[in-house]
Design a protein that fits this description.
Layout lengths: L6 H14 L32 H10 L4 E10 L25 H4 L6 E10 L3 E7 L4 E7 L2 E6 L4 E6 L20 H11 L4 E11 L2 E10 L6 E9 L5 E8 L7 E9 L17 E4 L22 E6 L6 E5 L5 H7 L8 H10 E6 L2 E7 L4 E5 L3 E5 L3 H9 L2
Parallel strand pairs: 6-12
Antiparallel strand pairs: 1-2, 1-11, 2-3, 3-4, 4-5, 5-6, 7-8, 8-9, 9-10, 10-11, 13-14, 14-18, 15-16, 16-17, 17-18
């Protein structure tokens, strides 16, 4: 079937999609990178009426699904080594913060395999629970209140909407990261354009539902993204499964899909939460000012990143920025961090580092299966979902 590649009509579809998008969970996972386990493989190829890519995108945009509940399995394989429980800031959890804070807890979804229970009743009520063998972590959005509860530590986190640190109520919830097939699909469609090929790639059955497969792929060479495949419910237009495969082949980098789904309105009690006696409760507005609103616990130095620029366009765009010479990140990159580098951070960097040279000088490329980052010796950073060669070429062109 011919690709749907009209930028004007795609733009209209994306604007309509954004207008109708309904959050199906209170939180989600960052920067669009998640892949699904073999147990979630498609079962059967249902015989459905023919549909064009344009019609399928419009079907997603027009979807009016506001109520649902179900189970989602997420598997992420970026090829990162274990950091031994350290947060993305490489320093662990700050003193005084809560283990139930979704800005910290949900970073765990960036690696490995996880089972989630999700429920939604319109824009005002959503719930997401991360299920482990012996514990459960839940985030509940009910009107103006956002609660998070970690059963392993018996700690709860509470924020009121509008309070600093409470997070967004729209598609991505308090963590600012997409976690469901719908949210991930919205992000990809909003970012796609003339550099993208969109086709219908057959049919599938997901969680017992007949679905069309929408395939979204870069036209450009040099991207580490092979393709994004979205299974779209044939009846409701709701994305049921999202899979991102790398250009290098092999298992999916990101894959998230429903194993069970029900489009009936969840029971009102689903969104009830009252901390038990003895539960430690952290109020968002009681945290130190410097800790409020920090999504993902990024290092404080991130606020001082200098002159962020985007080079190129589409799937091969590269971000360029300058690290402050006295920043913690800059010190780590140059090997001059006071007191030396934490062992887990050193292991992380050593396992990913690859020395490169060019007209830009010399530096080190840190690689995952999807994203490559070049840190030069003079403190510049180049990052993108592009190959190492494309990254070095972008740096050389500056």
């Amino acid at each position: 079937m011919a690709p749907y590649e009209s930028e004007d009509s795609q733009g209209a579809g994306r604007r309509k999609l954004a207008r109708y998008a309904v959050p199906v969970a209170v939180v989600g996972v960052a920067a669009a990178t998640i892949g699904l386990v073999p147990a979630l493989a498609d079962s059967g190829d249902p015989d459905l009426p023919k549909i064009t890519a344009r019609e399928l995108i419009e079907k997603i945009a027009a979807s009016d699904t506001e109520q649902l509940s179900g189970t989602v399995k997420i598997h992420t394989d970026l090829g990162l080594p274990s950091l031994g429980g350290a947060t993305p800031g490489l320093g662990g959890r700050d003193k005084g913060s809560s283990s139930a804070d979704p800005r910290e807890k949900l970073t765990e979804l960036a690696t490995g395999t996880h089972t989630l229970r999700v429920a939604a009743d319109g824009e005002e009520r959503q719930k997401l629970s991360v299920l482990d063998d012996a514990s459960e972590y839940s985030v509940i959005h009910d009107g103006a209140d956002v609660w998070a509860y970690d059963s392993a530590s018996d700690e709860a986190y509470h924020a009121r909407e509008g309070a600093r640190g409470a997070g967004d109520r729209a598609e991505k919830g308090p963590s600012g990261v997409p976690a469901t097939p719908k949210q991930l699909t919205d992000e990809v469609l909003k970012a796609s354009g003339a550099t993208t090929s969109v086709t219908v790639d057959g049919t599938a059955q997901i969680a017992g539902r007949d679905a069309y497969r929408l395939r979204i792929a870069p036209k450009q060479s040099g991207s580490t993204v092979g393709a994004v495949t979205v299974a779209v419910d044939a009846k409701t237009g709701t994305p049921l499964k999202f899979t991102l495969t790398p250009a290098s082949g092999g298992a999916a980098v990101v894959d998230a899909g429903f194993t069970k789904v029900d489009f009936a309105r969840p029971a009102a009690s689903t969104f009830d939460f009252e901390p038990s006696k003895g539960t430690k409760v952290t109020e968002a507005d009681e945290l130190p000012a410097q800790d409020r609103g920090k999504a993902g616990r990024a290092p404080q130095d991130a606020a001082r990143l200098d002159g962020l620029k985007v080079l190129g366009k589409g799937w091969t765009s590269v971000a360029e920025l300058k690290l402050p010479g006295d920043s913690g990140i800059g010190a780590l990159a140059s090997g001059s961090a006071p007191g030396g580098m934490p062992a887990d951070a050193q292991t992380f960097l050593d396992s990913l580092g690859d020395k490169v040279t060019g007209t830009f000088g010399s530096g080190t490329v840190y690689s995952t299966r999807l994203v490559n980052v070049l840190i030069t010796e003079d403190g510049k950073v180049y990052a993108g979902a592009v190959t190492k060669e494309a990254l070095v070429k972008a740096a050389d062109a500056r």
